[in-house]
Amino acid sequence: MIGKLNHIAIAVPDLDKAIALYRDVLGAIVSEVVDLPGHGVTVAFINLPNTKIELLYPLGDSSPITSYLNKNNAGGMHHICYEVDDILSARDNLLNKGMRILGSNEPSIGAHGKPVLFLHPKDFCGTLIELEQV
After folding, report:
1. Annotated catalytic residue 130
2. pLDDT tens figures, 18-27
3. β-strand 5-11 against 52-58: which pairing, if any?
4. What is the overall mean pLDDT for the chain?
């Protein structure tokens, strides 16, 4: 069902500092910064030859990243994202197997302009998983 690894998301307490670290210290190519109000985050992507790193920063006080950073004030890995060919089929398959989807069970549009779903971390070894339709 899942395809390749699309990205690993890291929550950061200072987006500009994180961008500078990846760009200036590691020599990475960094995307433009984009606000995603529907998800409560500001993001930038580090483009690697085989995947991406998504830097997540809270957008507003109700951002899910704010509560994450309150528990992990230095930041850290937030989620991993896998690609799927058909997000609705993947959702139905997961629900039929007793897995939980966060939110309304309906895909929303993610940072790449494509449908995404988040899977409950308690169902996947404590890891928050994002599925993105490609």
Report:
1. yes
2. 999 999 999 9
3. parallel
4. 96
Q: Kindly list the structural domains of the chain, giving each domain's residue range(s) and its CATH number in brackets, ordered by start.
A: 5-133 (3.10.180.10)
Tokens of 78: 């937030």
DSSP 3-state of 53 = strand
What token pair was written down for 30? 């960094």
Euclidean distance between CA atoms 25 and 50, whole angstroms:
20
Tens of pLDDT, residues 29-81: 999 999 999 899 999 999 999 999 999 999 988 899 999 999 999 999 999 99
Q: Which residues pair with 54 in a beta bridge?
A: 9, 45
In sequence order, the 6+-apart residues with CB closer than 8 A to the CB of 39 are 59, 64, 108, 110, 111
Annotated active-site residue in 54, 83, 130, 132: 130
List CB contacts of 13: < 8 A, sequence separation 6 or more.
57, 69, 73, 74, 75
Q: pLDDT exceeding 90 applies to what percent of the chain? A: 95
